[in-house]
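FAQ: What does the model actually see?

It sees only this:
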Amino acid sequence: MSLIKEITLFRINRLLELAENRVKENKIDLAKRYVYIARRLSMHNKVKIPKSKKLFICKKCNNYLIPGITCKVRKSKDFIIYKCNCGNENKMFILH
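And it is asked to produce this:
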């Protein structure tokens, strides 16, 4: 991996960590901005956002999903469904 991609991946991870902390501090607008910048860095430098972090980003509103704060959690028979407060994003996790 080139040095530019390594730096970009480091910045993406750092921005997403900051976004998570800002959501917990109830600074949602700032967290959305951090997620937006991380996504733009990812697209511009062609670096994938790690899947462990990508699962908690709403594609519609750039919200960082934290259960009980920015999303609702529902359990169906075989899935756990995360629904963003914007009302349009569903993330499903298969239960084993």
